[in-house]
Amino acid sequence: MAISGTHVAAGPRRAVLLGTATLVLLVAGALVWSVLRAAPDPTVPAREASARASVAPGAADVAVVDAVGSLAVLRDFDAARAAAWAAGDVTALRGLYVRGSEAGRADVAMLRSWLARGLRVEQMTMQVLAVELRERTPRRIVLVVTDRLHGAVAVRAGSQAGTRSGAGERRALPQDGRSTRRLVFRRQGGQWRVASVRDVAAPGESGEPGESGEPGESGEPGESGQAGDR
């Protein structure tokens, strides 16, 4: 995955992380917000990937360490989310979101729905096509992520994780198309937590929503109401 900077007008730093590397997700993030669009099914991705970093000409104001560090925040969130989904741990999942986050409420509700049906999710693969760093401060990160998910498998609760079980206990979830979403992370209690998730146009296109709507601000307009609908 290549990481490069882009021109930034006066305002938040921007960096574009481009790549076609396929990331193996530890059952995180289709929940990572995509399969949920196609089926009402959650998936969770944990991201792992090596990256080659470079800063594009004219983007001296973009710190590569900020771009790489922000990608690591996304990866760590996905890994923790994957673990919570695999374990059916509602408390752990809720702790990954800012209190009052609509995305967090939806994610928890979806996990409970799966658990009520005796199901969990594993074997998720996510292909990251682009990640644009819109803002990075000591307490806030804004990313626009374009990716697609595939490979998720619904597993009947009670089956041993990572192993094939009897007939009828495993079901492949629908493959997802590419999606672009805006994720806002906020630093709370020494941890980066997701404040909001919403659909946007692909990076570089018009039609992107404003910066409002996070918990702690007035209202929550525009935030996605589906758990991993990134």
Predict the CATH topology: Nuclear Transport Factor 2, Chain: A
Alpha plus pi helix count: 4
What's the helix-strand series? EEEHEHHHEEEEEEE
Low-confidence stretches: 1-60, 206-212, 217-230
Q: What is the β-strand count?
A: 11
Terminus-to-terminus distance: 20 Å
The coarse silhouette is globular
User: Over the alpha carbons, how many angstroms does the gyration radius reach?
Assistant: 17 Å
Structure description:
By secondary structure, the chain is an alpha+beta fold. The N terminus and C terminus are likely disordered. Strand 10 and strand 11 form a beta hairpin. The radius of gyration is 17 Å and the shape is globular. The strands form 2 sheets. Strands 1, 2, 3, 4, 6, 7, 10 and 11 form an 8-stranded mixed sheet that branches. It has a 3-stranded antiparallel sheet with strand order 5-8-9. The chain is built from 4 helices and 11 strands. It has one domain: Nuclear Transport Factor 2, Chain: A, CATH 3.10.450. Helix content is 21%, strand content 30%. The longest helix is centred in the first third of the chain and has 24 residues. Keywords: Collagen. This is Collagen-like protein.
Please describe the structure with a list of short key phrases separated by commas or semicolons.
Nuclear Transport Factor 2, Chain: A; eight-stranded mixed β-sheet; disordered C terminus; alpha+beta; disordered N terminus; three-stranded antiparallel β-sheet; 21% helix
